[in-house]
Amino acid sequence: MVKKLEDYEYMCPEPFTNIHTGAPGIYLPCCIMDYEELFKSHEHEVCETEKHTIEDWFNGTFIKKLRKAFKENDKDFLKGICKSCIKSEQAGVRSHREWYLERFIKDEFKHKKEELEKIIHEESFPTFLHSVNADSIGGALCNLSCNMCNVASSTKYNSEAIKLKEMDYMIPLAKNYKNFYKDLEKFEIIEFKMTGGEPLLVEKHYEIMSKLSKDTIIRIITNGTVNPTRLIKILKDFKQVIINVSAEGLKEVSDYIRHGSNFDIVLKHYDMMQKVWGDNVMFTATINALNISRLPEFLNFRKGHAGSPVTNNFYSVNSIPDDIKELYLNKLYESGNIDLIKYLENAKYNEEDMWGMLRHCKRRDRLRGTNLVDVFPEWKEYYETCNG
């Protein structure tokens, strides 16, 4: 008998009917997993978009092990690579895993629920893709150097890291297998996602969108710095378009953390898209050590949500010392944002990470001509004693 999604102890649809390729050009199970942890902790054969087909990836040893771990509730196998979702769920915050299950059980993917259950049961090659998130199309091409980013996800961050002598080379943009785009055409694609880097800088994205069925759900995460006029022209007749505009708070907060961004310009572009797609355009922010107490006022400013918690570097909320944590919690109690309160209350202070974050900020402040305490004065005592 085919088992229902609801009957598994711990199930995620992503490794069964999703394609995600990271900005460096590597196939990955999803957009939220910690792939550095994956490479450290598992015997993971690297499938690259330059050399391997989608079928190579789905038939690979690692992805088969991952699917098996979900089917058998093997938490020991999952605890490292899926730690972002696990930590969110432990804090009482809805995870990406839970969101995708919900979409199959009662939302826009529900017409594919039985088909997914059969694929999981039979361990068969997918007959459809619920999502395609191919960051390898544009690679790490990006015009911002956000503090919590990394060299593999932003060319601007990469060039800044070279100036700071944190590394000495530019990571090349990803290359895709010659038939990668033809491979995608073989599948019924329910949702096409563009994240990046900055997807609206990538010419190939516009070409792909112009060929997709207008019934395809389009989901874009953009930093909002690129004029969306061309995007609107291509997508105005699509059935469903969801735009997440990334920012980290109101003007001074976002402009500091997302260096190179201008919140006034981002807001102008947000309003242009909002006139076309209404409430399907929303702001999205990470949850990190600097912005967490500023998020409620930002989310009340325009429609938005706090998206992915930073978990894979020292900008996580674990870098917040107890005195600042108490200050932030008091602000959050006033706002009544239960999810953020739970998330911060469950944070475990890591002093080493805190100093790592502050040194990281101080190096960038010297290069950029900025100053952390101008925007976040509560960090002054720690920042001034930090040797960057």
Can you put this structure into words, describing what you see?
The mean pLDDT is 92. The N and C termini lie far apart (60 Å). The chain has 388 residues and is of the alpha/beta class. It has 20 helices and twelve strands. It is globular. Helix 16 packs antiparallel against helix 17. It has an eight-stranded mixed beta sheet with strand order 2-1-4-7-8-9-11-12. Strands 3-6 form a two-stranded parallel sheet. The chain has helices at 14-17, 35-41, 54-58, 61-72, 75-81, 83-90, 96-105, 113-122, 155-163, 180-185, 203-211, 229-235, 251-257, 263-277, 295-301, 322-335, 338-345, 351-368, 372-375, 380-384; strands at residues 18-21, 27-28, 128-129, 131-134, 145-146, 188-189, 191-194, 217-222, 240-246, 258-259, 281-287, 304-309.
Multimeric status of the protein: single chain
Rg, please? 21 Å
Q: Number of helical runs?
A: 20
Helix content: 40-55%
Low-confidence stretches: none
Mean pLDDT: 92
DSSP, total strands: 12
Write out key terms for the chains shown:
8-stranded mixed β-sheet, alpha/beta, 388 residues
Question: What's the short version?
Answer:
This protein has 388 residues and is α/β, with parallel strands linked by helices. It is built from 20 helices and 12 strands.
Q: What topology emerges from the helices and strands here?
A:
Layout: H1 14-17, E1 18-21, E2 27-28, H2 35-41, H3 54-58, H4 61-72, H5 75-81, H6 83-90, H7 96-105, H8 113-122, E3 128-129, E4 131-134, E5 145-146, H9 155-163, H10 180-185, E6 188-189, E7 191-194, H11 203-211, E8 217-222, H12 229-235, E9 240-246, H13 251-257, E10 258-259, H14 263-277, E11 281-287, H15 295-301, E12 304-309, H16 322-335, H17 338-345, H18 351-368, H19 372-375, H20 380-384
Parallel strand pairs: 1-4, 3-6, 4-7, 7-8, 8-9, 9-11, 11-12
Antiparallel strand pairs: 1-2, 5-10
